[in-house]
C-alpha cells in the first residue's frame, strides 16, 4: 500500500510510528536546507513537542548509503548538551523522517545578530558547546556542520547542539544540487576539498575555532575580510607564503577568554595535522578539566569485551582475551557477521600490562576512536572502559569485565 502524500504544511498530520509517537501535527516551519526541512511538531496523542526533520531527494540507486546514515542516527549520545534523536523512519525510498526532542531555545546566530550577549554569556555558551562536541566525539560521531545556527541557547543559559547523529544524511547523494553557501565559511578546508571521507574531530575543531572568533569579534572572520564565497578562501590560501591559519590575529581580542589569541590559531590551522587533536585539549588549554571516564573498581583480573551497538549484529559480544604483550586481530567474522563495511582484518588489539590498545590494519572503510580517524601508520591508541570504536559503519563499545573467582 502506497504512503499518503506528506502534508508539509502547518496543520499537516504525519504518521511516523517512532517509539511511542504514532503521528505528529506540524506546528511551525523552523528552517529549510538543501536536503530537507525542519518543523516544530506536536504528538497528536499527548501534545508533547518535538522537532521533525524531513530529509528528501535521496538517490534511490544507492540504498546502502541511506542504511549507513540510519545506523549513525540510531546511536544514542548521552549528553546534557546535545538535542537527542528520538528515532527515525523511512517514509519512502527517497525520504527519511527524523524526530528530535524539542528544546525551547534561540539559535546562537540570531543572538549574535541581536548583539545582546554579555561576555560571561559568551564564555559559558562556548564552554557548553565544547562539552557537547566532546561528548559526541567520544562516541565517534562527527558533526561536520557546526555553526551558530546549530547551537541553541535557552532562557536559563543552557546550551544544546542540533543535528549531531545525522551528519551522514547530509552526505547522501541527492537528486538535486545542494547549496553549500551558508555553512562553507565554518567548514575546514580539507572537508571542502576532499569531502566527508577525511572527517574526524579536527574538522569540528576548525568550526569551533571560527565560532570562537565570531563570539569574540561579533562577526565572522569571512565577514571582516569581505569574503563572499569559496574563491575568496582559495585566493587567501594561494598567498606566498601560504597562511598556516584561516584567521587574522592582528586586531583579534577576546574579553571572555584571556588565552583565546593563543588557542585560536591551533584550532583553525590549514593543515589538520597541526590542529588540536581533540576538544579535550582545547578545554584543558582554556583551564577546564575535561571529561574523565569512570574507573571500574577491582581493576585487577579484568577482561575487555567488544559489544556491537549498531547494525544487524547488534548485541553481539566478543571477548578480547589477550595475554600480556600479546595481540589479536578482529574483522568482519569476529564482529558483525555479514556486514561488508568491515574488512576481514580491520583492527588489532594489543595488551601491555593493564593497558589495552587498538590500531588500524589498513581497512577499506577505516576506524575511528574518540573522534580520531586512525591510520595504519599511527601508534596504537589506548582504549578505556566505555570507549566507543567505529569500524566501517559499525559502532562497538569496549567494556571491562571481571574474572570469576
Description:
It is a single chain. β8 (151-154) and β9 (159-161) form a beta hairpin. Mean pLDDT is 85; it is low at 172-182. The protein has 405 residues and is α+β, with helices and mostly antiparallel strands. It has 3 domains: 13-101, Phosphorylase Kinase, domain 1, CATH 3.30.200; 105-285, Transferase(Phosphotransferase) domain 1 (Transferase(Phosphotransferase), domain 1); 302-402, Tumour Suppressor Smad4. The chain contains 10 helices and 19 strands.
SSE order and pairing:
Layout: E1 13-18, E2 21-33, E3 36-43, E4 49-56, H1 63-73, E5 85-92, E6 95-101, E7 105-107, H2 108-114, H3 119-138, E8 151-154, E9 159-161, H4 189-194, H5 201-217, H6 221-225, H7 230-237, H8 260-267, H9 279-285, E10 302-308, E11 317-319, E12 327-330, H10 332-335, E13 347-352, E14 355-360, E15 367-369, E16 372-374, E17 381-383, E18 388-391, E19 394-402
Antiparallel strand pairs: 1-2, 2-3, 3-4, 4-6, 5-6, 7-8, 8-9, 10-11, 10-19, 12-13, 13-14, 14-17, 15-16, 15-18, 18-19
TL;DR?
By secondary structure, this protein is an alpha+beta fold. Helix content is 23%, strand content 27%.
Write out key terms for the chains shown.
27% strand, 3 domains, 405 residues, Tumour Suppressor Smad4, globular, Transferase(Phosphotransferase), domain 1, Phosphorylase Kinase, domain 1, alpha+beta, 6-stranded antiparallel sheet, single chain
Amino acid at each position: 500500500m502506497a504512503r499518503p502524500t506528506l502534508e508539509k504544511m502547518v496543520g499537516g498530520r504525519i504518521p511516523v510510528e517512532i517509539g511511542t509517537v504514532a503521528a505528529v501535527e506540524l506546528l511551525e516551519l523552523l528552517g529549510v536546507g538543501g536536503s530537507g526541512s525542519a518543523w516544530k511538531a506536536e504528538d497528536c496523542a499527548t501534545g508533547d513537542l518535538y522537532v521533525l526533520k524531513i530529509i528528501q531527494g535521496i538517490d534511490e540507486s544507492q540504498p546502502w548509503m541511506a542504511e549507513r546514515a540510519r545506523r549513525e542516527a540510531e546511536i544514542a549520545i548521552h549528553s546534557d548538551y546535545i538535542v537527542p534523536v528520538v528515532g527515525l523512519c523511512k517514509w519512502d525510498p527517497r525520504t527519511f523522517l527524523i524526530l528530535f526532542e524539542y528544546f525551547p531555545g534561540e539559535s546562537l546566530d540570531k543572538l549574535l545578530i541581536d548583539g545582546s550577549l554579555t561576555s560571561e554569556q559568551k564564555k559559558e555558551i562556548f564552554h557548553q558547546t565544547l562539552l557537547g562536541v566532546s561528548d559526541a566525539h567520544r562516541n565517534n560521531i562527527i558533526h561536520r556542520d557546526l555553526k551558530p545556527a546549530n547551537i541553541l541557547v535557552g532562557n536559563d543559559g543552557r546550551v544544546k547542539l542540533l543535528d549531531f547523529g545525522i551528519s551522514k544524511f547530509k552526505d547522501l547523494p541527492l537528486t538535486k544540487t545542494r547549496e553549500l553557501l551558508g555553512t562553507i565559511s565554518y567548514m575546514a578546508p580539507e572537508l571542502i576539498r576532499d569531502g566527508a571521507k577525511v572527517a574526524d574531530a579536527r574538522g569540528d575543531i576548525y568550526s569551533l575555532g571560527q565560532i570562537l572568533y565570531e563570539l569574540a569579534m561579533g562577526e565572522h572572520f569571512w565577514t571582516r575580510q569581505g569574503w563572499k564565497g569559496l574563491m575568496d578562501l582559495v585566493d587567501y590560501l594561494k598567498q606566498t607564503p601560504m597562511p598556516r591559519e584561516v584567521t587574522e590575529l592582528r586586531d583579534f581580542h577576546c574579553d571572555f577568554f584571556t588565552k583565546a589569541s593563543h588557542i585560536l590559531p591551533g584550532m583553525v590551522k590549514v593543515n589538520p595535522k597541526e590542529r588540536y587533536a581533540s576538544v579535550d585539549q582545547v578545554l584543558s588549554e582554556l583551564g577546564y578539566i575535561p571529561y574523565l571516564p569512570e574507573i571500574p573498581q577491582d581493576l585487577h583480573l579484568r577482561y575487555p569485551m567488544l559489544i556491537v551497538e549498531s547494525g544487524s549484529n547488534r548485541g553481539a559480544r566478543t571477548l578480547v582475551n589477550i595475554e600480556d604483550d600479546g595481540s589479536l586481530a578482529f574483522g568482519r567474522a569476529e564482529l558483525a557477521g555479514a556486514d561488508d563495511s568491515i574488512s576481514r582484518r580491520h583492527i588489532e588489539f594489543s595488551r601491555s600490562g593493564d593497558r589495552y590498545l587498538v590500531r588500524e590494519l589498513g581497512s577499506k572503510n577505516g576506524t575511528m576512536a574518540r573522534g580520531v580517524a586512525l591510520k595504519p601508520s599511527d601508534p596504537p591508541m589506548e582504549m578505556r572502559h566505555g570507549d566507543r570504536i567505529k569500524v566501517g559503519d559499525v559502532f562497538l563499545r569496549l567494556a571491562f569485565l571481571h574474572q570469576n573467582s
